[in-house]
Amino acid sequence: MKVELRDPNKIMKLSRLGSFHQSKLSFLRSFLNEFKEWEYKRDLFNLNENGFGEAVYSFKKNKRVYSLVCFANEIKDEERSDRVIATKWDAAFTLHDGVPTKKDIERLKNEVPKQEVGRLSYKELTLSRANKSVRIYNHVVESLSKGQQPDLNLLSKVGYLYRTTAVYGSGKFGLADRFRIKNREEINGPFRLEMMLVYLVRQFTFDQVNHVAYHKNPKIAVKLDDNICKNLGIGNSTGLGMAPFIVNHPTLLNNWILSREKALKKIREIKDVESQDSDLFIDCVKKSLRNITSWNTDSEYQQKKISSLLKDVEKFLNFIDKDFNFESEYPFNKIYQWLEDNTCEECIEYIVSIMMEPYNNIVNPLVKEMSSDEEKYFNIPTYRKVEELRNIIEAKYPNILDINFEKKENNKNFWFISKNKEEPRLADRFEEHGSELEQPLAIARDIKKLYDKLLVSKNSLTIAEFLTSNSELRHVVRRAFIVEKFPYSEIQDNTIGKDLMPIDMLRLKLSFFGALKFDPRSDKWLRICMFQGAPLPNELKSYDEQWVYKTNI
Q: For residue range 59-75, what is the model confidence (pLDDT) as tens digits?
């Protein structure tokens, strides 16, 4: 049986993309799989009794070494902020290419804590900073210093000791450009070095609380239990800065989504499913209920999504238990069709992610297809004709062409770059100034503009001739030719309408990172947790690949 890939006009709607969940394709899980055979080491741990100072952690294989250099800083409570305008953080980090010398560490000590204001070198690959979850951090230190383990109920409400507020890479602030390292096989997957940084930062947070607790009370202090460590991750606060990325990198977005769609297609095409594979799938769904019931948020929007997800996953398990036979032919195809008919988008995509768990043979080759050499597809084929371009738009953007951008509600917002921090922002076109500085992120509106121009242009005109008098539409002409080859490269929705939920764009990207427990703090920023339940570095050589469904707090 041949299953078709899912329709981009359905899957690339923001409500569907904003319902994606982590899977075996997610970058943090593929990172762990790639680096499980590397040698992990804590090379330097020079913190004072209060936990301030420097530390270095590394992964090594053959002659290749990646080193996380950490700087723990003393700041006042009023200086601690997750907002992009912050200038001080509890800790700052960089991933160094190789083994840092004493001279490197001194240089980095002067630059890394400054973050955007500092300057790194080609020897550094990523840059980040993080703040303590002060209530949790202090509770853990206090408990350990008294010879006790911390309160698991309190830990479960947050799930981490620190949260990062930014992770930078690829040429920013002097960091190495991607061309220097892109041919290294171990970092072929997207954001692999960023995942390494966050993973090693997680270990630093455990070592720091153990160190501070010991110096607080050397005689009776205990270390944080390894099982508790495993069930803590690293938090992250993410705002609108992440949203334009998925618009500005169409071929990369396509390759992420296409890999997921190919995996689903191949799994649905399995005629006879082995009992061990169906058992693993069902076990992961059942154990994942813990992730849903421990998903804490004050956001009413997210609470409704969680409630619907829980109800539908329970309905699904009831269906599997009472009405379904895995020994029938093409069982995963039948499951998928049942999900589409009986559950919400959140549940559909949740179960699609879990379907991948038994199938390393399907998923692992697809991980290698998730990067993109974007420069290859940047040139516009100017020899082609207006008629061809119009046909592409009619075929690839049918829902977009139905939007009336003369209506205020469809043209309500505009994207701009803030002057102070050069970060993306969203504003109301009819209530705020600055729309003349609008960024080219209203793709749906501009595609419609392009289409209207094409309707009144000669079919025989070349694209070069058309662009001589319509150069302001060059960016969407390029995109239309990209979507012709890359069907999942375009969000098939209005990114400036009144009903826009920007966090759907954030959540899409974060799901591919491998984030859990999305906690929106508004419609424009959210907190998440990464690596919660993941093996510790000294356990990587032999770990349970389904760890993500087995967190205990």
A: 999 999 999 999 999 99
Q: Any idea which residue has 């790639």 for tokens?
A: 34
For residues 117 and 99, give the distance between their C-alpha atoms in angstroms, rounded to a whole number.
24
SS3 53: strand
Closest CA relative to residue 400, chosen from 324, 479, 343 = 479
DSSP state of 462: B
**CB neighbour class for 7 (10 Å; exposed up to 12, middle 13-18, buried from 19):** exposed
According to DSSP, residue 181 is labeled T
405-445 confidence digits (pLDDT tens): 999 999 999 999 887 767 888 999 999 988 999 999 999 99
Cα 111 to Cα 127, 200, 408: the distances in Å are 11, 20, 47
The Cα 128–Cα 75 span in angstroms is 17
Q: How far apart are CA 143 and CA 213, in angstroms?
A: 8
Q: Which residue bears the tokens 């992420």? A: 256
- CB-CB contact of 320 with 334 (8 Å): no
DSSP string across 77-118? GGG---STT----SEEEEEEESPPPHHHHHHHHHHGGGGGGS
Angle in degrees, CA 446, 451, 454, rounded to 5? 130
Contact yes or no for 13/176 (Cβ under 8 A): no
In terms of phi and psi (left: phi > 0; alpha: psi -120 to 50; beta: otherwise), the region of 514 is left
Q: List the one residue out of 81, 76, 44, 362 whose CA is nearest residue 200.
A: 44
pLDDT digits 0-9 by tens, 320-362: 999 899 999 999 999 999 999 999 999 999 999 999 999 999 9
Closest CA to 249 of 167, 182, 191: 191
The whole-model pTM stands at 0.94
Which is it for strands 516-520 and 91-97: parallel, antiparallel or unpaired? Answer: unpaired
**How far, in Å, CA of 335 to CA of 332, rounded?**
5
Show the tokens assigned to 143. 């408990």
Token couple for 262: 């190919």
One-letter amino acid identity for 391?
N
In degrees and rounded to multiples of 5, residue 92 shows phi and psi of -135, 150
